[in-house]
Write a structure and sequence with these properties.
Strand content: under 5%
InterPro entries: MFS (IPR011701), MFS_Cyanate_Porter (IPR052524), MFS_dom (IPR020846), MFS_trans_sf (IPR036259)
Protein name: MFS transporter
Main location: membrane
CATH class: Mainly Alpha
Helix content: over 70%
Structural class: mainly alpha
Membrane topology: Multi-pass membrane protein
CATH architecture: Up-down Bundle
Subcellular location: Cell membrane
Length: 430
């Protein structure tokens, strides 16, 4: 008769696939567990890899915004076509998220994250080639690469830091926004320092992706004997994992992720342009945009920590959506006079919202399997929804010659995010 240990199966964090603990499968599972123990025995290596990967998750997007005017002039793009420089990567954040779970379970998170960083560097370089097709094609590579990072990171954190998921979410969201802050602040100065125009400024960030890939390589080597994602056991006769696509709660988390992403990517695409359209210099607009990203770090770090200590996150939903709505309203009524204030208010709200959205994925999941699946769903649907934001805002601005109507639409998005967020913040799991 089989022992209790023999009657258990190991569950893969990315796939949710059960592997019988017998024969070759048992040996492969043991190799994976050993690899995982070896990796976690060096937490500094893992932490450095997570932080450096996270730094890259918005750099390629934030570095474009202060340079949109020059890029548009170089290729003769209209406002709507210019918005595609940001919308195309965001669209592929959603489409790339469709394949991320499959790649994770086929090759393992370590290998996929390493490959994503290499792909990101290639996409950044492709965008600086003297062709509008390369500009958009590089955006496809950038969006796909970031999608892989976005989707696999929550599951990896739930897997490797199950007792510190909220605090680790704070670390990686804070690093993600810090990278965006530096990229936004440095875009125009790099253009001048490198003496190569906007192409040199954008291309510079491929170096950060290369450094992150190098830092991730030890984890790939440690886990090379097996995918190494076995993190928990369940009885062999246990219930099959639930389908997140049939869960109302999963859809509520997904819609909050998408709506908060939409308002963020509208700002990433158009905030500096809103300021310059009202007479502000490019350098000042770039600095205020960088300040907005810097303030986001505070919200992204603090809100997940607070969320992890609360049974229901409803007060935080109200807080972040109200701050974002107030900041957008300020941009509509006094964009230049109150630019620094609105940038700060928006920053706290934006950072808090993205941190809360990512934390909800972890908190609303019962285990690492569900976290990976919910992450894939939320970021697939969420970013496909968010991709419409910059494009719609650019089209409305081109049609009306004003930013009033686009901002009014985003205020309606804030109201909708508050509604679904209050449902997603309830104390329950998928």
């Amino acid at each position: 008769m089989r022992t209790e240990e023999e009657a258990r199966v190991l569950v893969d964090a990315e796939a949710g696939v059960r592997r019988p603990a017998e024969g070759t499968a048992a040996r492969r599972a043991a190799e994976g567990a050993a690899a995982r123990r070896a990796l976690l025995a060096h937490p500094a290596v893992l932490l450095v890899g997570i932080v450096l990967a996270s730094l890259n998750m918005r750099v390629a997007l934030a570095s474009v915004a202060p340079l949109v005017g020059e890029i548009s002039a170089a290729f003769g793009l209209s406002s709507t076509a210019s918005s595609l420089v940001t919308s195309v990567p965001v669209l592929f954040l959603g489409l790339g998220a469709l394949v991320a779970p499959w790649l994770g379970r086929r090759f393992g998170a370590e290998r996929v994250l390493f490959a994503a960083l290499l792909l990101l560097g290639a996409g950044v370089l492709a965008r600086v080639l003297p062709s509008v097709y390369a500009l958009y094609g590089g955006g496809i590579l950038v969006g796909t690469a970031i999608a892989l990072l976005n989707v696999l990171m929550p599951g990896l954190i739930k897997r490797d830091f199950p007792d510190r998921a909220a605090s680790m979410t704070s670390v990686y969201t804070g690093a993600m926004i810090a990278g965006a802050t530096v990229a936004a602040a440095a875009a125009v100065p790099l253009e001048k320092a490198l003496g190569g125009g906007w192409e040199a400024s954008l291309g510079f960030w491929s170096l950060l992706a290369a450094v992150a890939a190098l830092a991730w390589l030890p984890q790939v080597l440690i886990a090379r004997g097996r995918t190494g994602h076995e993190v928990r056991t369940v009885p062999a006769g246990g219930a099959r994992p639930v389908s997140v696509w049939r869960s109302a709660l999963a859809w509520q988390v997904t819609l909050f992720m998408g709506l908060q992403s939409l308002w963020s990517y509208v700002l990433i695409a158009w905030m500096p342009t809103i300021f310059t359209d009202h007479g502000m210099s490019r350098s000042t607009a770039g600095m205020i945009f960088a300040f907005n990203n810097l303030i986001q770090v505070a919200g992204a770090f603090a809100v997940p920590l607070l969320a992890g200590r609360m049974r229901s996150q409803r007060p935080l939903i109200v807080l972040v959506t109200t701050l974002v709505a107030a900041g957008y309203a300020g941009l509509m009524v006094a964009p230049v006079e109150g630019a620094w204030l609105w940038s700060a208010v928006l920053g706290i709200g934006q950072g808090g919202a993205v941190g809360l959205a990512l934390t909800l994925i972890v908190l609303r999941s019962g285990d690492a399997v569900t976290a990976a699946r919910l992450s894939g769903m939320a970021q697939t649907i969420g970013y496909l929804l968010a991709a419409a934001g910059p494009l719609a805002a650019g089209a409305l601005h081109q049609a009306t010659g004003s930013w009033t109507l686009p901002i009014c639409v985003v205020l309606a998005v804030c109201a909708a995010a508050a509604g679904v967020g209050l449902l997603a913040a309830r104390d329950r799991t998928v």
